[in-house]
Amino acid sequence: MGKVRQIVLARRPLGMPVPEDFQLTEAEMPQPGEGEFLVAMRVGSVDPAIRGFLDDRPSYIEPVALGAPINGMSLGEVVQSNNPDYPVGTFVRAFATWQDHYVLSGESWGLETVQQQPGTELHHYMGALGPVGLTAWVGLFAVGEAKPGETVVVSAAAGATGSTVGQIAKARGCKVVGLVGSPEKARVIRELGFDHAIDYRATPDIAAEIARAAPKGVDVYFDNVGGEMLEAILPLMRLHGRVAVCGMIGQYNDADHPHGVRTLWQLVVNRIRMQGFITYDYPDVLAQAQAELDQWMANGKLRPLANLRDGFENLPAAFIDLMSGRTIGKTLVRI
Length: 335
What we know:
The protein is of the alpha/beta class. It has nine helices and 15 strands. The chain has two domains: 156 residues, Quinone Oxidoreductase, Chain A, domain 1; 148 residues, 3-Layer(aba) Sandwich (Rossmann fold). Helix 2 crosses helix 3 and helix 2 packs across helix 8.
């Protein structure tokens, strides 16, 4: 039945991942059982959360075993099916593995069908019109409960999720402050409509800069970074402010030595609600989220940022670039 290409974990990364941590291999083509279907990967998603799966420590999924394919979100096309709900030709996205073909069932985590709209490229359904957009919407509105007129601060604002958060917050009538790590990234988010762009690498006192941009305080902080950034922002939160914790990329490459946040007392002082989340914990709102994302895309209020690569074998290099902080927008690999 042919071979399947896989990218497996050759060794556990020490700090920043390097090419030697990964290996391109082949295995026998998997065959779908009863109720299952075979999917050909069309777009592979490269996400910071993958870094946590590579360490031998508990996370919200089991760590990737040495010699096993890397886990990650994927969009693919059904090419063989034993499930009438997912006939051949259906596009689906789900949490899968770095294989150019993989087997899913109707119970697979994060499984959704994708209805590609005319004129919209397929890769956008793994970005702003897919898991990235849904994560931004859930964190901002279901967890952060952002309302028109409120001030939203988002870290890693030129990244996949951060750039989407800022745009949909503006679409709902919020004031948005973005935190980035270079002048180029600051320029990008200003062009996307952010009210303020702060380059933290060029700012000796990040808290003072945020306070100048948000003199009445911060209502919602969408946290992608954690660590020192979270520590600086907590004292700037308004009474009953909300912190939606999407990720903590600031410590992914050194999870054994996390930054101790010294301002957590502010949670009590200002009765701040701080909550981590996973998008698929909120299935009841995903249809509304998808509809609003589609509408904002159609009327130009949401402009996806995509950092595109081509070729299955380039998944590790794309991931390494992402973790180095060199990328802007959503990193995707077209197969």
